[in-house]
Amino acid sequence: MSRRQRFIENLNTVEKKQLLQGKRTGESSIFRDRCHAILLSNRGYTVDQLKGIFSVAKSTVYNWLNRWDKGGIKELKTQPGQGRKPTLCIDNADHVKVVKKAIKKSAERGSNLLATIEKDLDMEDQLSMQIIRPFLKKLVSYGSVYEEE
Fold first, then answer.
1. What is the dihedral of CA 17, 18, 21, 26, to 10 degrees?
2. 69 partner at 20 to 30 Å CA-CA among 14, 50, 55, 142?
3. Is 82 among the domain residues?
4. Is 110 in a helix, a strand, or coil?
5. Alpha-carbon distance 26 to 17, whole Å?
6. How many CA atoms lie within 13 Å of 123's alpha carbon, on the beta-carbon side?
7. Which region, left, alpha or beta, applies to residue 122 given φ > 0 means left and ψ of -120 to 50 means alpha?
8. Residue 68 CB neighbours (<10 A)
9. Which residues, 6 or more positions from 49, have their beta carbon under 8 angstroms from its beta carbon?
């Protein structure tokens, strides 16, 4: 016994226009894929076909269809707060203060910048330059690293 096929039916012209716009100019590639999948589903493509086209799991396609049913195009957008949280955050005043202090200390005494930051923040994970570099770039773009607060 097979599962009943799932399709998005009865898209009105406004919804089709929104989905086409999202497919062409959406901010992220996953949002563009979601819009495209809804349009293809409306044209009669099965979940198995969509799974193959977008190289995702069947459950992912079902999630996209359910999200569309739940709230339309706004539900297809990636919600804030998803993804891995940064180890060091430019919005965290303690992180900024410790890094500025460590930069001065390492410049004056020649100490290891990473070790100083890890010690001062009591971090469980080891820091690497791959973590520090983007933080420093943001720090420099928001203002001078050597400014006193």
1. -170
2. 55
3. no
4. coil
5. 13
6. 20
7. left
8. 22
9. 40
Other Cβ atoms within 10 Å of 84 Cβ, number? 5
Please name the residue that has the structure tokens 């894929």. 33
Match 């410790």 to its residue by tokens: 98
Domain that holds residue 119: 93-142
**Confidence (pTM):** 0.59
Burial (CB count within 10 angstroms: exposed 0-12, middle 13-18, buried 19+), residue 9:
exposed
Last residue of a domain, one of 76, 103, 131: 76
One pLDDT digit (tens) per residue for the chain, 149 residues: 456 788 888 889 999 999 999 999 998 999 999 999 999 999 999 999 999 999 999 999 999 999 999 999 999 998 887 777 778 888 888 888 888 888 888 888 877 888 888 888 887 777 888 888 888 888 887 665 545 44
**Quick check: is 148 in a domain?**
no
> What would the two tokens of residue 41 be?
């589903």
Q: Which residue has the tokens 């409306």?
A: 42
**Structure confidence at residue 5 (pLDDT):** 81
Using CA atoms, how far apart are residues 31 and 73, in angstroms rounded to an integer? Answer: 9
Among 50, 76, 102, the domain-final residue is 76
